[in-house]
Task: structure prediction
Amino acid sequence: MKIITDLQDVNIEQDTVVTIGNFDGVHKGHQKIIKDTISIAKKKKMKSVLFTFANHPVNFFEKDKLKNIITKEDKYEIINEMGIDIVVSIPFNEFITKLDPKEYIQEILLDKLHAKQVVIGHDFRFGQNRGGNAQFLENMGGIYGFDVKVMDPICMEEIRISSTYVRNLLELGHVDKVSEFLGRPYELKGTVVHGKKIGKDILGFPTINLRYDENILIPKIGVYQTKVNIDGKIYDGATNIGYSPTVKQNEFTVETYILKYDGDLYEKEVSINFIRRIRDEIKFDTIQDLKKQMNMDIENIISYSS
Result:
């Protein structure tokens, strides 16, 4: 898969089938659109192109308003595995905001991407002030000679799959439902860093403290059952997201106790897959009460996994 990150570097000479969107999370709705784009391109013997933005358009207008569901690198990896030929991921900037819908079609879809067919979601909007929609694109396709396929919404349990809905689920801690909408567990990657050693020295449960991409959305504060990937080997984990109020840490952390693991992971890259939320983060009266609850959490995880 070829990745192009500057519109000036786009030099596609073949005819293409293009899909457009932010694709944050690459959820099952996105996957359907991408698969159809690839399928059409193969049938027509054209290149498949995914056109997206490196930054979320919402954050251009309101800085840091939205956290991402997935890192840019993970997004590329998933899209690559699906089989897209070319990803064009450019900055959403002032130039983009000033293109009216006709200019967007002419300068990007036709001049740059050589689109002969465009595959979009039913709620697709584009161009200055979001002035273009699916109907407008279909009308222009008739004039400029490209086809348009508008995808119906993808629903699960009568709920339309969307990045907004996935974000809401994460903010509520419903990571099990998020997995259903993504088609994979919600994953947080990062580097293991030194913490205050409270887990090891005070509680007797050595934990890893994760330094992660701060632009990624973190699930609701609480305790989660997780799977920890260390060099391709998977371990059960109990992950606490929050401030550890019982030991008065007063610093937001993502800490994981890895079951049946004994080793030094500092400065190592690991990934944590969230399986389900077990409970709220609680301030206990004593350290002993916290240790008792942690033992119960671990028994809960072992019972659920067996």
User: Anything to note?
Assistant: Residues 186-305 form a domain with the Elongation Factor Tu (Ef-tu); domain 3 fold (CATH 2.40.30.30). The chain has a mean pLDDT of 93. The two ends are 39 Å apart (CA to CA). Residues 287-305 form the longest helix (19 residues).
